[in-house]
Amino acid sequence: MSGFETMSIYEVKGADLEYRVQEVLEAFFLSPLDTRYSIVKPTVQGQSGTTWRLDVGVKNNRTNSYSVLVECKGIGKPNSWQYHAQICSAYMELNDIRLNNLFADTKLYLIINRRAERGDQQAYRKNYEEIFKVINVKVYYFADDELYTFATTDLSSIGEEKGT
């Protein structure tokens, strides 16, 4: 994994975080004998008419639809407003996408590099998992090694659907 092992949670953000999530999705969905799925950087339209560019997606090539859409948020060291602002932005984006009926069957995820800390004032002690559950989006934290849970729990349920 070339250098990721030595990176702090504050450094695993942006392209690094997206790459890690993409690796998990590729390992689960791609195989040389099965071309039903492809890993993409999707651009999708929300109910508001806004076009959103998400970080990673799994496209079902047979139905030309998305099985999984993932937004990644890599937030640097604790800052009074940055964490909360980034999460609010993700909520707005993912909710707009969820409201578009074309994505009713698509699994939506938010992967964040770390949990909020004391220095993140506005975000500290907020339960983002519960807040996002309202719009049917699952939240996972890279720093808590939750990508393994993401792969084994959520993606396995989609994998059961792959057989059809």
Please characterize this protein's 3D structure.
The protein has four helices and seven strands, in the order αβββββαβαβα. With 164 residues, it is α/β, with parallel strands linked by helices. The chain has a single domain, classed as Trna Endonuclease, Chain: A, domain 1 (3-Layer(aba) Sandwich).
Keywords summarizing the entry:
164 residues, alpha/beta, Trna Endonuclease, Chain: A, domain 1, five-stranded mixed beta sheet, two-stranded antiparallel sheet, 4 helices, 21% strand
Quickly describe the structure.
The chain is an alpha/beta fold and 164 residues long.
What is the topology?
Blueprint: H1 15-29, E1 37-40, E2 43-45, E3 51-53, E4 56-60, E5 65-73, H2 82-99, E6 107-112, H3 128-133, E7 137-141, H4 146-162
Parallel strand pairs: 5-6, 6-7
Antiparallel strand pairs: 1-4, 2-3, 4-5
Give the domain tally: 1
Main sheet, how many strands, which sense, barrel? 5 strands, mixed
Would you tell me the overall average pLDDT? 83
Which CATH architecture?
A: 3-Layer(aba) Sandwich
Task: Indicate the percent of residues in helices.
Answer: 25-40%
Widest sheet: strand order? 1-4-5-6-7
Q: Compute the gyration radius: what is it?
A: 16 Å
Helix count? 4
- The shape, in one word, is globular
Distance from N terminus to C terminus (CA atoms, Å) equals 33 Å
What is the string of helix and strand elements?
HEEEEEHEHEH
What top-tier CATH class fits best?
Answer: Alpha Beta
Task: Tell me the total number of β-strands.
Answer: 7
Which strand-content bin applies to the residues? Answer: 15-25%
Low-confidence stretches: 1-10
Structural class: alpha/beta
CATH fold-level name? Trna Endonuclease, Chain: A, domain 1
